[in-house]
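Review this:
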Amino acid sequence: MTKFARDEFDRVPQSSSRQGVHRLVASASRPTLWPVLLLGGIALAVGLVAFLILPKLGFTSSTTPQAVVTADASKQSTVASPSANSSAQASSQPSTQPSPSDTPSSTPTPSTAPLDKTAAVAVYNGTTTSGLAARVAGMVQVGGWPLSTVANWGGMPQQTSSVFYKGAAQKGNAEALGKLLGISNLVDSAEFQQPVVVILGPGYK
């Protein structure tokens, strides 16, 4: 029970129908968002594919115009200069004439100077080893050269063994003697009267 006196609002009608300010407010319907999200995801995927994958595959918009321009330029250059085209065709054909480098030389140059074993060879011992000049002179004589002088060296001290020869005519003898005696130092000199002189220096065995 209430403390207030009954009024007109306390009179409840017997019928079940509602009246007055009592109304049912229907909830507003919300729009569904999944179609919008689906379309946005598809658009994002297409954009990523076009931005990242297509350039790697060569699908770029700049290649086609450049290729067209290059083709047009090549066509224009071909039409404008027929002489260049003919020269290019001529250069593409193999040449049947041999080049000067392919022609064999009629006068081959010898690898070494000619030998003249009639030239006498002098052998000097510039070391302290006794009998070295005589032993080397025997090797020279066995090799086919005649001997002129076999003695100890009395000139300036030698640093190494050497073969001295007079002029280009004796170069072949000097090379052959150097190979026979194991001497690599060959000197063209007009200091000696003999055509070929062998001086044995320190360390020769």
Observations:
- DSSP finds five helices and five strands in the chain.
- The two ends are 147 Å apart (CA to CA).
- The helical segments are 34-53, 63-80, 82-92, 132-142, 171-181.
- Residues 101 and 108 are 13 Å apart (CA to CA).
